[in-house]
UniProtKB/TrEMBL annotation:
This is Membrane domain of glycerophosphoryl diester phosphodiesterase. Signal peptide: none annotated. It comes from the Bacteria. Keywords: Membrane, Transmembrane, Transmembrane helix. The chain crosses the membrane at residues 31-53, 90-114, 135-152, 158-177, 198-228, 248-277.
């Protein structure tokens, strides 16, 4: 029998990383079953739309090159390039919407899987799905708020944006584990982060670098293909071509990389939950109080 992880306790950086992967080890089958069943379709749809845009971008580059070579001046909207550009632009808007929805579902799924383990000792799919559906729009609101506030903060010399992003990274865990509405969770972020901003920042940086490194492995085939195609075109025509972006090999590698990036994103979400538990224990000693109450209840019984 695998040892259950104690969520509500203080952790340093090493413990957060270790327990993140311990969660996968202990609950891999049930977690990924729920994840791919309920988030997978959105990931697949987002990947398909993104792949279409990559293919269209390659076609746009080809069409722009052909127009430049022909020297034919046509109305932008009636030209093949113009029509393809407008279609790609509209699909890009759809991709943004799908990406936000996918990210929201991913956060909800991961955090409610953790909550299911916390409450029930295991991942119960029906509980996770029920919470994902009922809390989708509140989590979506939090995603939009964090994005907008961090973006506005970044406009003011970048540093405020970094501070706000790190602080508000706790908002999702607060909403899930403390059952707080968005406005209260927003305020609670600034309370929990006190005396621990730099530690939280360092932890997020290390986790981010780890995820980026693993993710970059899946991007290597695209980079190699781009280099080969680029140098081949340069040796033949003297110009570096980007038309390879429309090739099917590039699209396949792009799709694999996109799916992998969403799966790897779960590492960041699980880590953020452990960061929350650490800060909550630091300020409120929730885990310690629960342990005392449990021991007291056993003695009485």
């Amino acid at each position: 029998m695998q040892k259950q992880i104690k969520f509500r306790k203080k952790r340093d950086l090493g413990a957060i990383i270790t327990d993140t992967f311990s969660f996968y080890r202990n609950h891999a089958k049930s977690f990924f079953t729920v994840f791919f069943k309920h988030v997978g379709p959105l990931i697949l749809l987002t990947t398909i739309v993104g792949s279409y845009i990559q293919k269209s971008t390659g076609n746009l580059l080809t069409l722009s090159g052909e127009d430049a070579q022909s020297g034919v001046s046509t109305d932008f909207f009636s030209s093949a390039f113009g029509q393809s550009f407008l279609t790609t632009s509209l699909v890009s808007v759809l991709l943004v919407i799908l990406s936000i929805a996918t990210y929201t579902a991913l956060i909800s799924c991961v955090l409610y899987c953790i909550k299911s383990v916390l409450d029930d000792g295991e991942i119960i799919e029906s509980h996770v799905v029920k919470n994902m559906r009922s809390k989708f729009f509140p989590i979506l609101g939090a995603v939009l708020v964090v994005s907008i506030v961090s973006a506005i903060g970044t406009l003011f010399f970048i540093i405020p944006g970094i501070y706000l992003f790190v602080t508000l990274s706790l908002i999702f865990s607060i909403m899930v584990f403390n059952h707080e509405p968005l406005t209260d969770a927003f305020s609670s972020c600034f309370t929990l982060i006190k005396q621990n901003w730099w530690m939280t920042f360092l932890t997020l940086i290390v986790i981010g670098l780890l995820v980026s490194f693993i993710s970059s492995i899946f991007q290597v085939p695209m980079i190699i293909l781009g280099l080969i195609e680029g140098f081949t075109a340069a040796s033949q025509s003297g110009d570096i071509s980007m038309n390879y972006m429309g090739s099917w090999w590039y699209i396949i590698f792009y799709a694999i990389s996109t799916i992998a990036s969403y799966v790897l994103m779960t590492i960041s979400v699980i880590s953020s939950a452990y960061i929350y538990f650490n800060l909550d224990e630091f300020h409120n000693s929730t885990g310690q109080r629960e342990e005392i109450e449990r021991i007291g209840g056993e003695e009485i019984s």
